[in-house]
Amino acid sequence: MKKMMMLAAVVVVLGFTGEAAASSTGLRKITNIGCAVSDNTCWVEVAGAAAGPAGCSGNSLRWSMASTGGKNILSLLTGAFLAGKEVRFEVVDTACYAESPAYPTFHYINFN
């Protein structure tokens, strides 16, 4: 099971290498994480400076659990949150989260 989770994490991280412009947040502490029951939107709130494009810059990053790798991202971020690990987000510089455009979104994550 652990090997499968690790493989899924690698696929998620490497699968986004050709994505549009993004910028790194640097390592951030997760202060809150959750998902809505009304749709597939999940969020993670991070400490530090706001991230994302000017139209939706903030500390609450959104993604869809229904997207490819969405459930894996939720699992990885929940584990990092519970373990007190810091996470680096590659935030989309060119667009906001489509389902809730007041918030930034990201292409992928990695840990230190």
UniProtKB/TrEMBL annotation:
Residues 1-22 form the signal peptide. Keywords: Signal. It comes from the Bacteria. This is Lipoprotein.
